[in-house]
Specification:
This protein is α/β, with parallel strands linked by helices. The protein folds into two domains: 77 residues, Barwin-like endoglucanases (Beta Barrel); 109 residues, no CATH class. It is 20% helix and 44% strand. A hairpin with a 2-residue loop joins β3 and β4.
Length: 211
């Protein structure tokens, strides 16, 4: 038997959550970029080269002044791909699905850092080139949260939530990964394809919908 009171309470809670401005998260649109290992940075820019900071992103992460060129099996190139610092253990290239049509590559959709068995590519710098055997991904949609925000809302690192997009092209993003760290800003990251499809720009607001 259907309990009408239970259904009414569930609907009220859902509406309350939708109208709660504290659930709003700022959007950050990620352009294609690359993270380099120390070894690959040395190959591309010269032994001992250090990245120079253009813009602080969050925590220790920054956009550098340095860029590289990506070359896929099509032999067509995408130039001026920004390097994000600091250096990492493994080189990782993050591109959009649209970029794959030019480069003729088929990277998986993955969380950042999960590069095992991913797509290959050639990276060209001013001092040399690197044949990356794996490391090209399309980054999954994810939300960076501070521990304080996560605790307040009962959300944990590596949870998955849905996200409501309102505005001129309303939609809903499903299974968005939560990432919690004390040096994060509160921000949802999507790539340029997702941003364009939903009519979103940097700084736009979306709402977390608990699963």
């Amino acid at each position: 038997m259907i309990d009408i009171k239970v259904i009414e309470e569930s609907v009220k809670n859902a509406i309350k959550e939708l109208n709660n401005e504290d659930n709003e998260i700022k959007i950050g649109v990620s352009q294609r970029h690359i993270h380099l290992s120390r070894e690959d940075l040395d190959t591309l820019f010269g032994k001992g080269f250090e990245l120079t900071k253009k813009k602080t992103l969050m925590g220790r992460e920054f956009a550098s002044n340095e860029v590289v060129t990506l070359v896929g099996p099509s032999l067509k190139a995408i130039e001026n791909v920004r390097i994000l610092g600091p250096v990492r253990k493994n080189t990782q290239v993050e591109i959009s699905r649209t970029d794959t049509f030019l480069l003729k590559v088929s990277p998986p959709v993955r969380p950042s850092g999960e590069v095992a068995g991913s797509e290959k590519i050639v990276i060209v710098g001013p001092k040399g080139s690197v044949y990356l055997k794996e490391g090209v991904i399309i980054a999954n949609r994810h939300i960076h949260l501070t521990p304080e925000y996560a605790e307040k809302h009962g959300i944990k690192d590596n949870d998955y939530v849905d996200v409501l997009v309102e505005g001129i092209k309303p939609t809903k993003f499903y299974d968005v990964q939560i990432r919690v760290r004390d040096d994060f800003n509160i921000e949802m990251h999507i790539d340029t394809d997702d941003a364009n499809s939903a009519g979103l720009k940097n700084g736009a607001k979306v709402k977390i919908i608990r699963k």
